[in-house]
Each structure stands twice: as structure tokens, then as C-alpha cells.
Amino acid sequence: MTDASILWYANRATGAVCLVLFTVVVLLGVAVRLRTRLPGLPRFGTVSLHRTLSLSATAFLAIHIATAVIDGYVDITTLDVLIPFASDYQPLWLGLGTVALDLMLAVLVTSLFRERLGHRTWRAIHWLAYASWPVALIHGIGIGTDTGTDWMLWLTVTCVAAVLTAFTIRVTQAARANRRTPATLLTAEGARP
Fold this sequence. Notes:
mainly alpha; single chain
């Protein structure tokens, strides 16, 4: 196996691993927001797992990007990684990956400085993570060399179904919370309306 083929396989593998890890990170983010406890973990354990997997996914993303830039088979430069739609190679699909990266970098940097930014500012910027996931997914579908394989199709469908289910639960819960009136909340807590 040559160095070039090792880089190519590493790029493909880390792309698939990123899809899985970032999907789990999104699911855990929704679970944290819903104040859901995972079996065997206290609530703070869910938050901790979300943060740890976010950093792990970011590490795999860095390897994915590095292998794409280092591999000489396709000409992807460091600027192509940072500036959306500037690449000569697959400008739309690579550009979407760059947009997803830029959004994730904003989330990562603001999460590192969360205490200094304040909760409201951090939370507003953290919503970009929800936008970056589908953009990254479309990037992978458009540029991924394994897109047409059965295993990648099933992996993608599973990830999309999981995220759509989590968002449906999240939106349903938010809609229920918005329909509650103060009288409903008092009655639910056992007080008189």
C-alpha cells in the first residue's frame, strides 16, 4: 500500500467516523437540552459525554481535513479549507464542507470561552452547530467517494433518521412548553388555578 492510498483511505474513513460522531454529538446536544439522562449516567454525565465526543469528533475532523490537504491526488489547499467555494476542485461540495467547518470553529471557539461570553451569547452561537450538521452531511454526500455504496447509504440514512427523530422530539417538547399557561403550570404542580 502506498502513502497516497493510505491518505485516501484515511480521508474516507475519517469522513465516515465524523458523520457518526457528529451525529451522536447532535443527539447528545438535544438530550442535554431536553434534560434527558442517559442510562447509567447522571445528567452532568450527559453534558460531559457531549463535550468529550465533540472534541473527539473535532480531532477526527482535523485528521480528515489534513489528509485531504496532504494527499496530492486532489489539489486542496489550506485556503480552500478556510474560504468557502474558493477551490478549483469540486467548489460547491468542498465549499459546503468549508462552511460546515467554519460554523463548527465558531461553536468550538465560543465554547472554549463560554464563561467570558455569557450564556446567552454562547447559546446563540451554539445554534450554529445545528446548521453545520446538515451542511456537512450534504458535503459528504456530494463529494464522498463512498456515497454510492450500500454501507454508506445505510449509515447516512441511519444518521439522518436519528437526527430527524431527535429534532422532532425537541420541537414537540418546545411546542408543548409554549402551549402551557401559568394556570396549567400551577395545576400541574398541585396548586389552585
